[in-house]
Amino acid sequence: MWVEINSTGKLLVAYSGGVDSHVLLHCLSQSNYKNRLTAIHVDHQLHSNSKQWTQHCARVCAALSVPLRVEIVSVEKNKGDSLEEQARRARYAAILKHVDVETVVLTAQHADDQAETVLMQLFRGAGVSGLAAMPQVKVFGRGRLERPLLNKTRADIVAYANEHNLQWLEDPSNQNKTLTRNFIRHEVMPLLRSRWPSVVKTIARSAHHCGEASELLDEYASQVAGINFITQELSARGNSFESRGIIKDCFAALAVTTVSPAAQKNLIRYWLKQTLNYIPNENKLRAMMDMPNLPTDAHSAVALDQHDIRYFQSHFYIVPKIKINDYAFTWDLKNDLVIPGVGTLCLVKDPNGQVDLKKCQYKNMIVRNRRGGESILLPSQKHHKKLKQLFLEWSVPPWQRPYWPLLVVESEVIAVPGLAVSEKVCSDQGGFSLQII
After folding, report:
1. Facing residues of 376 across strands?
2. How far apart are CA 11 and CA 13, in angstroms?
3. pLDDT tens sequence across 203-222
């Protein structure tokens, strides 16, 4: 076999119409893998002939008797990312819609692509994780992604295509040397080959070494994280952080003060990769490392894509970027109350709960966030106490305090869900508890 696939699941080939993916598709279609094979083509709509490309892919798949799925995407041109990166992100998002636990996505990157990627990462100042470049196999959504051609060179692939008289498409953008990868491909790599003919294999070997080093760093970080993670709220759909509101999300916290600075940076990288699939650059890492040295009342944050990193009482927290306005809802305690951006408030039967339901027969109960100046009469206390002071005593992170729900009757706070109830509704013998989920 020209390529080997280590899977018994469904095979989904990412087919662009170019020579690399055409060779991969053709090779698999002539093998025992054919009955498990499907192709997917993503039209990025980035050039005028994109529809003709889709038609070409359909003809090739029909000739090979391989089912084809087509996705049409729009590439959002954001500042800070290359067009190649934006197209890749849109392409992978489209492919993910077709991936389940039995799916193996196959892409056609080869050894020359790997060498180019290593050089691109090197010129960006990447560490060992970046210099490991593209892994042979990785988790992809609920399934896996494999690169079965990573041990083949571009010359190997073109030779196969010519031997089997394959007809492929040439992307005109591949000749655009203003793009970093193309500049490396057309200007840098030929020069390196003229001096070191086996440079592609040599770079691939270095990438493999960096991959092993990266695995060791992750293994060390996972052992340290077992001690330092408070908890890790991961969704059931791969290693992605599942946002449930500003209260619950903050429970993905990390303590790093007990390890060396180098280990702290490694642990932060590992934490963000596991929870958000996000790799911070050096500037982001440096900003996070500086946060423990800021004044305790500083409300600083390090901005990521859709989250902020905040620091409070020796812990880093992932906080979703959610715009929350002042809110007020009537609530009868019977049904769960969804508070957008905050969480879901519910009344739960609890033998250790402090809420006496018989004392909560109010017709005008309101759930709202803080407005300032609120206080509560805690059980067995003679005087009300300011919530501002209580939030400090309860170690509530400062970014949560303005939006924490309060149960209010006629301007008086009778409960702070998840934290306290007032003397007016308190039960001495257990009953119910108010929880934010």
Report:
1. 385
2. 6
3. 999 999 999 999 999 988 88
What kind and span of H or E run contains 386? strand 385-386
Beta carbons within 10 angstroms of residue 190's beta carbon: 9
Residue 64: exposure state from Cβ atoms within 10 A (0-12, 13-18, ≥19): middle
The predicted structure's pLDDT at residue 102? 95
For residues 26-36, one letter each, b for 16 or more C-beta atoms within 10 angstroms of the residue's C-beta and e for the rest, the string is bbbbeeebeeb
Question: What angle is formed at CA 51 by the lines to CA 46 and CA 54, rounded to 5 degrees?
Answer: 105
Q: What is the per-residue pLDDT for 240?
A: 38
Closest CA to 417 of 352, 362, 348: 348
- CA-CA distance, 252 to 254, in Å (whole number)? 7
Q: Which of 433, 415, 320 is closest to 368 using CA atoms?
A: 415
Beta strand residue intervals within 210-263, DSSP E: 253-255
3-state secondary structure 289-308: HHHHHCCCCCCCCEECCCEE
Mean pLDDT along residues 323-332: 89
| Summary mean pLDDT of the chain | 87
DSSP 8-state symbol, 234 = B
The predicted structure's pLDDT at residue 300: 81
Please, are residues 131 and 122 in contact by the beta-carbon 8 Å criterion? Answer: yes
The residues of the chain that CATH labels 1.20.59 are 229-320
Place of tokens 């339901």: 357
Q: What is the C-alpha separation between 375 and 386, in angstroms, rounded? A: 4
Tell me what the mean pLDDT of segment 122-147 comes to.
93
Which is higher by pLDDT, 364 or 127? 127
Q: Which residues pair with 229 in a beta bridge?
A: 254
Element (H, E) at 182: helix 180-183
* CB atoms closer than 10 angstroms to residue 238: 14
In 3-state terms, what secondary structure has residue 316? strand
CATH 3.40.50.620 maps onto the chain at 10-202
Q: Are 238 and 212 in contact (CB under 8 A)?
A: no
Tokens of 374: 């609120």
Residue type, 329: F
Give the integer Cα–Cα distance in Å for 41 and 230: 42
Rounded to an integer, the average pLDDT of 362-371 is 87
Question: What's the CATH fold of domain 229-320?
Answer: Chorismate Mutase Domain, subunit A (1.20.59)
Does the domain made of 10-202 have the CATH classification 3.40.50.1820? no
